[in-house]
């Protein structure tokens, strides 16, 4: 049996597959090439770069399962795969700590101008007077989505002395988080951080931003499009939103240079899960699930 590893897999994960007698092919294909080549594989393993649409699933005549090293499966047409009896496997919690830490890192960057001073000092500038920041201690963090990642973010924020409020239609209580209505959260939070799956419509658009505190911050390490990029840019330009920390974008790689080069935006290129620890956990967990599906 053969697994197409499209966006990489940890060494430990690959060893688990090979020890089970599964051949691993590390190859990234363009969407057209993928449709041409997927017929040779019992499983395709992706992260976020490779999309697995209906056409690829139809062409994958030998597919027993589709695997995603990570939490979100929005880059796979998993509903369609299900209708064909092909399950989509993922690792829902393996990278939660890494994503939570990145969300907090963006908060620190914005609060203390790290994203700016890292650039200007390399240009030989000493802009000490321009970087009078704020403390996170004492500020209110509003978590939109209080699942595993939200709860881990809350734990770190609590330790920093932040008051944490949260909104989640599916979760009624969580340690260290005062659950509130969505409107209440928007009104009260100094930092709004999103921890929700991809949605058909933005969760934060112009209407929601209008309800936020003047000078609040928005952090999106969840999925591109859960924050409306046009509304965010308008709010950054008007000063309504003081800053944004972004790891994910409507289009990836993003071409929205006006947004990512905005002076009040701290950016990373979808690296929420990109730590040694998360990739070890993701790799091992997804490899074990693939072995069970192919050999079970
Ligand atoms: C996830 O859904 O867990 C992450 O987006 C994974 C990734 O970075 O590829």
Would you give an account of this structure?
- The protein has 296 residues and is an alpha/beta fold.
- The chain contains twelve helices and twelve strands.
- The protein has helices spanning 11-19, 31-37, 54-59, 78-83, 96-112, 114-120, 148-159, 182-188, 206-211, 229-238, 257-260, 276-295; strands spanning 2-5, 23-26, 43-46, 65-68, 88-89, 140-144, 163-167, 178-179, 191-194, 216-220, 241-246, 265-267.
- A seven-stranded parallel β-sheet has the order 8-7-6-9-10-11-12, with helices on both faces. A five-stranded parallel β-sheet has the order 2-1-3-4-5.
- Helix 1 (11-19) packs parallel to helix 12 and helix 5 packs across helix 7 (148-159).
- The radius of gyration is 21 Å and the shape is elongated.
- Bound molecules: D-malate (MLT).
- D-malate (MLT) binds next to loops.
Features:
38% helix, 296 residues, Rossmann fold, 12 strands, seven-stranded parallel beta sheet, alpha/beta, five-stranded parallel beta sheet, 2 domains, single chain, binds D-malate, 12 helices
Brief synopsis:
The protein has helices at 11-19, 31-37, 54-59, 78-83, 96-112, 114-120, 148-159, 182-188, 206-211, 229-238, 257-260, 276-295; strands at residues 2-5, 23-26, 43-46, 65-68, 88-89, 140-144, 163-167, 178-179, 191-194, 216-220, 241-246, 265-267. It has 296 residues and is of the alpha/beta class. The relative contact order is 0.15.
Shape: elongated
- How many discrete structural domains? 2
CATH superfamily of the largest domain: NAD(P)-binding Rossmann-like Domain
Low-confidence residue ranges: none
Mind telling me the C-alpha Rg?
21 Å
Largest sheet: 7 strands, parallel
Total strand segments: 12
